[in-house]
Amino acid sequence: MQDAKSVQPTEIDMAPPQPEEAILRAAAFCFSDRGFSATSVDEVARHMGYTKGRIYHYFRSKGELFIATASFGLDRLVEEVHAAMQVEGTAQQRLAAMSHAHVLTQIRDLPFHRVLLQGVTMVMRGSTTPDERELLDKLLARQRAYEGIFRAVIREGVEQGDFRPGNLTLITKTLLLSLNGACFWYSEREDQSPEDLSMIADHLVGQALFGLGERC
Amino acid sequence: MQDAKSVQPTEIDMAPPQPEEAILRAAAFCFSDRGFSATSVDEVARHMGYTKGRIYHYFRSKGELFIATASFGLDRLVEEVHAAMQVEGTAQQRLAAMSHAHVLTQIRDLPFHRVLLQGVTMVMRGSTTPDERELLDKLLARQRAYEGIFRAVIREGVEQGDFRPGNLTLITKTLLLSLNGACFWYSEREDQSPEDLSMIADHLVGQALFGLGERC
DNA sequence: TTGACATTATACTGAGCAGTATGCAACGAA
DNA sequence: TTCGTTGCATACTGCTCAGTATAATGTCAA
């Protein structure tokens, strides 16, 4: 019927066409649920209704799978926040837009972002191959760069008198931690309409930005 | 020389007199460093220069050890914050004192509090004996109660017009998460004099309380 | 001195798991 | 049709680890 070949399936449809992404989703679910060490590769495979062979066909090790999963989450954040920071306005307004995008992106694909936070740093001490080590370093560098985007905008806001001055690193880290709240306490319960989610995001952004001492 | 028996060794001296506490400290270090699942009981024992036998003499399982470790941290928080909330003054002043105590207590025994946060909830899904389950439930209940103390004071502050109103649960969770920042990014580097620590605590408390919209 | 109990080490067992080897089916190209 | 290649499943291996059994040592009381 449809010419399946002509339409490169770029985005997420009902069934993920790329096996890689299906694996990543299963991995995100399991890793975020039980942690890296407590999750077995067999478990991830079973969660998709497949077996280990499939995973090791696409990923070289459990560690690589973990890093790829976290990386996937970070990709989404970078995309969305980069888009959001293009809005015109004061540093404060841009920071608000970025924060909003950050929270909404996180909530949309919560498992990935839980994995990303789950101590990419802590979880994989030692016991990593050089290959994994390299991937991990790249991921950490990108994470720092992501944080740097926020820091730059905050600095601008401080210089423009929108925010009160202070230790920029501490300010940034505290802001982002507040924004990450959903990763810690959010659980998809009954209702949770898109409006609810937006409300939660509004609240988080509001309290986090208030913490910067905006427009007082 | 000294009559060792007459002086019940209540507090932490150079060498912890209670084997339980020595074990808890080693466990806190290891668990916070590599996570629950990735830490073996042998590792904890080696970290003290002892062997597994010692640990299993005092704790019935690895899970119980983990819960006891987290519990120990929570005990300290409850003690200190209860003391701090006795200060006279507005709700805002009491909350500030409590927050300060919270942060300083955390930094003083960081490994314990990292364990406490390390997803007491997430880390131990399934695979727990009924005994462990019961201990875990008690711990979680106490954790909720601890959060409740903060919520009560915040509510009071809102009623007195010190803080802007909003979803009390979200406000409380965001406040505490901000205060917990040190558990995520603090690393004991070179200097770190008591003054530095106090400065960090001041900053965290300041930004977190500002987020409540105090005295605007 | 003896016996009961507390404390710790050592040795062992069984289970779970990461990673590998191999086989097999489907598919496209020659 | 045949052959190579991709995409998986199945079976196996070696290791790590929680928990246990046992023994050795110390301590205190009678």
Brief digest:
With 216 residues, chain A is mainly alpha-helical. Helices cover 69% and strands 0% of the residues of chain A.
Keywords:
homodimer; mainly alpha; 69% helix; globular; disordered N terminus; DNA-binding
Give your account of this protein's structure.
The structure is a homodimer of 216-residue chains. Chain A is mostly helical. Chain A has helices at residues 19-34, 41-48, 52-58, 62-84, 91-108, 110-117, 120-123, 130-159, 168-179, 181-185, 194-210. Chain A is globular, with a radius of gyration of 19 Å. Chain A starts with 18 loop residues before the first helix and ends in a 6-residue tail after the last helix. In chain A, 37% of the residues are buried. Mean pLDDT of chain A is 88; it is low at 1-16. The structure holds a DNA duplex (30 and 30 nucleotides).
Question: In percent, how helical is the residue content of chain A?
Answer: 55-70%
What value does the Rg of chain A take, in angstroms?
Answer: 19 Å
Distance between the termini of chain A: 62 Å
Which two chains share the most extensive interface?
A-B, 33 and 33 residues
> SSE order of chain A, as H and E?
HHHHHHHHHHH
Unreliable parts of chain A: 1-16
Number of strands of chain A: 0
Oligomer: homodimer
Taking the sheet with the most strands of chain A, its summary is:
none
C-alpha geometry of chain A? globular
Q: How many H/I helical runs of chain A?
A: 11
Topology:
The structure is a homodimer of 216-residue chains.
Chain A: H1 19-34, H2 41-48, H3 52-58, H4 62-84, H5 91-108, H6 110-117, H7 120-123, H8 130-159, H9 168-179, H10 181-185, H11 194-210
Helix pairs in contact in A: 1-2, 1-4, 1-6, 2-3, 4-5, 4-6, 4-8, 5-8, 5-11, 8-9, 9-11
The structure holds a DNA duplex (30 and 30 nucleotides).
